[in-house]
Amino acid sequence: MAPTVLVVEDDPVIIDLLTLTLELEGWTVRKAMDADTALAMVHEDRPDVVLSDIMMPGTSGLALAADITGDPATADIPVVLLSARALPAEVAEGIAAGATDYVTKPFDPDNLVDRLQAVVDGVVRRQVGGADGGTAP
């Protein structure tokens, strides 16, 4: 069965790019344009992984990660944050919020798919770095 990813992104161009990239690799993609909708979908659909932008109107991706990982009903669903915020302190903030991985924009689509698959497979636990495979300090 294809893994399911919930993509949470408020930019329609990026959400379309992510959807196309992931579907071409065999993923089932669910989409939400804000964190509140995403949280409801996490409880309903139980995706294999959540890929979320950080900077969105309303509730941030950081708060979404904390809500998902802090709720015993959804704590087993990994969250990967995707953001242009790439300073070491910002990456650390994302991991502290509960993210399993943190990918910086711009990202390499193939590397992003590999990293999501590694998270779903349980290979990656709290890995930090850019989508180029580098590790952030």
From TrEMBL:
<dbReference type="GO" id="GO:0000160">
    <property type="term" value="P:phosphorelay signal transduction system"/>
</dbReference>
<dbReference type="InterPro" id="IPR011006">
    <property type="entry name" value="CheY-like_superfamily"/>
</dbReference>
<feature type="domain" description="Response regulatory">
    <location>
        <begin position="4"/>
        <end position="120"/>
    </location>
</feature>
<protein>
    <submittedName>
        <fullName>Response regulator</fullName>
    </submittedName>
</protein>
<dbReference type="InterPro" id="IPR050595">
    <property type="entry name" value="Bact_response_regulator"/>
</dbReference>
<dbReference type="Pfam" id="PF00072">
    <property type="entry name" value="Response_reg"/>
</dbReference>
<feature type="modified residue" description="4-aspartylphosphate">
    <location>
        <position position="53"/>
    </location>
</feature>
<dbReference type="InterPro" id="IPR001789">
    <property type="entry name" value="Sig_transdc_resp-reg_receiver"/>
</dbReference>
<keyword id="KW-0597">Phosphoprotein</keyword>
